Amino acid sequence: MRDGILLAGIDLGSNSFRLEIGRHEHGQVHRVDYLKETVRLGAGLDEERCLTPEAMQSGWDCLARFGERLAGFAPSQVRAVATQTLREARNREAFLARAREVLGFPIDVISGREEARLIYQGVSHLLPQSDERRLVVDIGGRSTELILGCQYEAQATESWRVGSVTWSLRHFPDGQFSDTAFRKAIVAAEAVLDEAVGRFGRMHWDLAWGSSGTIGAVADILAASGRQAITPEGLDWLQAQLVAARSADRVRLDGLKDDRRPVIGGGLAVLRAVFDLLSIEEMRPADGALRQGVVYDLLEREHGSTDVRTATVQRLAARFGVDQAQARRVGAVAVRLLRQLRPGDAPEVLGRAERKLGWAAQLHEIGTAISHSDAHKHGAYILDNADAAGFAQPELHRLSLLVLGHKGKLRKLEADFGDALFVHQLLCLRLAVILCHARRDAELRGVRLQPGPGAHVVTAVVRPDWAQAYPQSQHLLREEVLAWQKSPWTFALA
Length: 494
Fold this sequence. Notes:
This protein has 494 residues and is of the alpha/beta class.
């Protein structure tokens, strides 16, 4: 990615929405602008886990303002991610459809572990480089992420459904503070986080860092009181201040911002639980957070060699014992056919499409590790339910649809056949599987793929002598013509 380009990362958190804009210079991103709005989307989930109309409108209004700031940005310059509240919300698609429209860019709902990985990317890129073993903690509105890492690599990631908004609503109703309420809130948080002790305990890290939200607010309050780091003594002092005030609206502390006041009690209780369970004696606030991680991930996605998704696909293929030679054959043929079918695409657009098609080819047989019968269905299930580093849930589902559709009946594939790029990728993958059915390199000098004639039509031009030389492949291509008759598209042989 060229120097001087602006990049934007958007974090749709449970408490706040944040927009980070930075300028790329020599592999680093330097802040140009930062916008934050307290939306409290997480507090807008009702008992049925549906977002209320008021909460959705508040989110849409914020994203419309972000969208205005991002006018003129290309899609490759912006990435927006949504976290725990939208992972939970049953009516999230209703919210997201309008949200994408007013923002003007796609919004990815990411898994808890992917959120943790991106948080670490943001933190690590804004810290001095060293070989220290790091524990990174991020307490959000409805989830808490823990990460172990060294330099730029996150080595262990996890997310728990406990956060400042949920704990404040549950344990400090109407913002009322007491020692008894804090004890119950801390014990309840420890019960959720208890399994973290073995994996994230004191022997696994050298320094503890805290990211964003609650930890940033606590660090600001303690710094204003003359304390340079977050310590158990400082947390005791802060709890005593809140209990003395008796309610959130009566708290008067230097460093406490008004938008943080309603959720400081729940956030503090969760932080105390983390300190107690992991035997933390000191935690330092970090400048980086999820939004910066999203920006740096944008940089990596532009380069196949550094895209973490490529490494994830390779690990999945190895874990499920994929026939690597066959996967490479299918991938090479599928990509070659896609280039024939989409000659007018810009190089960067075609490059991204080829990379994703290659991933599908690499993983199209992972389901055989479960059973050869319906292996394509097993493979799709694996991908739909995997924690796959670098992938947002929608793009992982798109990959699963390619794996599901690489063979079998098309009419049962619940996919958007109005998406021409997806259909072209799917067809190229299916044809590649057919042409490589003998598990040897395919002879393609007699086969060419081209769009048309007409919309929603793709034609394979096959030389007669090729058909005579490879009668089984020719038979399978004719069967593929019949398969596409049950879809809105036509595949023809000429």
